Amino acid sequence: MSNKIAALARANVRALTPYQSARRLGGNxxxxxxxxxxxxxxxxxxxxxxxxxxxECQPKQVxxxxxxxxxxxxxxxxxxRGADEGIELLIRAFCEPGKDAVLFCPPTYGMxxxxxxxxxxxHRTVAARDNWQLNLPAIxxxxxxxxxxxxxxxxxxxxxxxxxxxxxxxxEMTRGKALVVAxxxxxxxxxxxxxxxxxxxxxxxxxxxxLSKAFALAGLRCGFTLANAEVIELLMxxxxxxxxxxxxxxxxxxxxxxxGLVLMREHTRQLIANREKLxxxxxxxxxxxxxxxxxxxxxLARFTNSSLVFKNLWDQGIILRDQNxxxxxxxxxxxxxxxxxxxxxxxxALQALAGASVSREQA
Length: 363
Prior knowledge:
The model has no long low-confidence stretch (mean pLDDT 94). The chain contains 13 helices and 13 strands. By secondary structure, the protein is of the alpha/beta class. The chain has a 7-stranded mixed sheet, sandwiched between helices. The protein has a 4-stranded antiparallel sheet with strand order 9-10-13-12. The chain has a two-stranded parallel sheet with strand order 1-11. Strand 5 (146-152), helix 8 and strand 6 (179-183) form a beta-alpha-beta unit. It has 2 domains: 2-38 and 260-349, Aspartate Aminotransferase, domain 1; 60-258, 3-Layer(aba) Sandwich (Aspartate Aminotransferase, domain 2), CATH 3.40.640. The chain has helices at residues 2-8, 11-14, 22-25, 60-70, 82-94, 111-118, 136-141, 164-173, 229-238, 246-255, 258-282, 306-315, 340-362; strands at 31-32, 77-80, 101-104, 122-125, 146-152, 179-183, 205-210, 223-227, 288-291, 298-303, 318-319, 321-322, 332-336. It is globular and about 60 Å long.
């Protein structure tokens, strides 16, 4: 019976490998450093008691507050179920299955690939350079038929900001041909790198944002698409009738209040301080080959035996994210920035592992 049901599904869905989110991968830890979340809960309470009514499609207070925060006008903004829905809406609105393509530059966020596959749209990849910057000549050679180019900056999982001069060149080469989507999920950790002020110069520029990272609301599933009004109007044609539930809009509005923004910025400062200490401590660990600088709430590190490190820490309840399957990231693990105590537990576990390895070699 199950085989008959599967046969009814679209062929591309049957062949699809779903995105392996942190929660799908599981684990039984008490130090969760694999999903780039804020490590502590934030103090928001439900205030709206109108669950008997459908919510606004685009909650007015949320739109107004986020527009003010991001420095855009309200007609340049769409709120949706996380930045992930923004990724999908752009494909649905601009790409015809079997005809158009999207392009992205691995190693990068895996949902660009999965979303394209889900809608039956071709995905093309142009590997990033060794420094994880864009390979513009190679991108130019692949642009024929491409409608959407995704650029994650700061990039997940490498943590680096993409050179703005390169993005400007990409925008020039895609004028009238394709959208360039800057995924700024981690922009609060390097606000100077945002491209939001570029919207007036580039009608094809789209920016994705989220409340999941610096705002510490990963469980809320609230994201934003920033674009020129013409793009927003098209996305409104394909978005669900009620993308945000009333409780989500309620808490999002609180997070975007003056007090909420103060709290977010304080959390961001704390995470950046923890990140810099973790980077310094990692560089003193014998099992670490290289630690990469980061403009995000996570750190990428290369280990001499990453599979041993991953399993050893997993068994101790410290859950990291394995990046070995990503192009160019052999031996790499990604470590979300937790509390100071959680980061110290990581370092203590790595030091013990390195010490045990030295003892075995000397025996």
